[in-house]
Amino acid sequence: MSTALLIKGLKKTYANQLEALKGIDLCVNHGDFYALLGSNGAGKTTVIGIICGLLNKTSGSIKVLGFNQSSHVNQVKKLIGLMPQEFNFNPFEPIEEILINQAGYYGIAKSKAKIQAELLLKEVDLWEKRFDMAKSLSGGMKRRLMLARALIHQPKILILDEPTAGVDVKIRHSIWRFLSKLNRQGMTIILTTHYLGEAELLCRNVAILNEGKVIKQSSMKALLSQVDQQVLILESLSQLPQTITSDRFKCERLDDHSLQVVLNSDISITSVLHNLDTQGVIVDYVHSAQNRLETLFLYLTNKEK
């Protein structure tokens, strides 16, 4: 598989001698959905800034789709779309014009930009508001506008910094669906988020930063497999029996329609459902009562201190 982003030995020391990055290595494959996680101050924003050419590195190398970032600055910028966390568009500009003007920075003709702007605004459900000033949009609409702007020049790599911060559940899910669609179409996506459930749901691979260093880099599946126990909530539309027994897993009746089960890593959910079925319990819904990625994140970052 070809490499979309390759970072080797990346270091950044600011003028006040703050060592933000201490020689990090990252490899993101083409078409990946990649989580870059870390606490505040871990170095995520610095990494993004350097990748996008907004900050100068102290040392190290970055290649974007085979292009050396230092010697192919303009080519690299065209390959990357950035959705920053902070709103940084002109609030007194109509939203369609925001996209068209952004396209102009990449040398895209206005006629072509208008076509692309229409496609994107319809995709993020903002077409009916295309003539509205950006300041009139709700927080969720502004997030979707930022996403559309990041995509206006049709980049190969999309970098998202807290893309669903402050939005309601409905908008969050609509953004997730759109991002998953883009990824299925072949776009490489790099996500930074403090909402770890978002990363667990969307991303196939993950790197965790702590104090300027990469402390873990693996597939999401391999990382989550390190959790010794899983806590699930099982729900039944039928009323549950008063007593439910099991020798292989812990089971607690929460109410007339809900159970909480705790599974060790060697117990499958299939065996649990079979056990409950023999006791007359029909499970209609299953969902996690814990965020496994959050559990591992806290363990790994605390271990480094």
TrEMBL record:
Q: What residue stretches are annotated with the ABC transporter domain?
A: 5-236
Q: Which UniProt keywords apply?
A: ATP-binding, Nucleotide-binding, Transport
Top-rank lineage group of the source organism: Bacteria
Q: Does the keyword Oxidoreductase apply?
A: no
Family annotation (InterPro entries):
AAA+_ATPase (IPR003593), ABC_transporter-like_ATP-bd (IPR003439), ABC_transporter-like_CS (IPR017871), ABC_transporter_ATP-binding (IPR050763), P-loop_NTPase (IPR027417)
UniProt xrefs under Gene3D superfamilies: P-loop containing nucleotide triphosphate hydrolases
Gene Ontology molecular function, alphabetical: ATP binding; ATP hydrolysis activity
Task: Respond yes or no to whether keyword Mitochondrion is given for this record.
Answer: no
Output this protein's name: ABC transporter ATP-binding protein
Native organism: Candidatus Vesicomyosocius endoextente
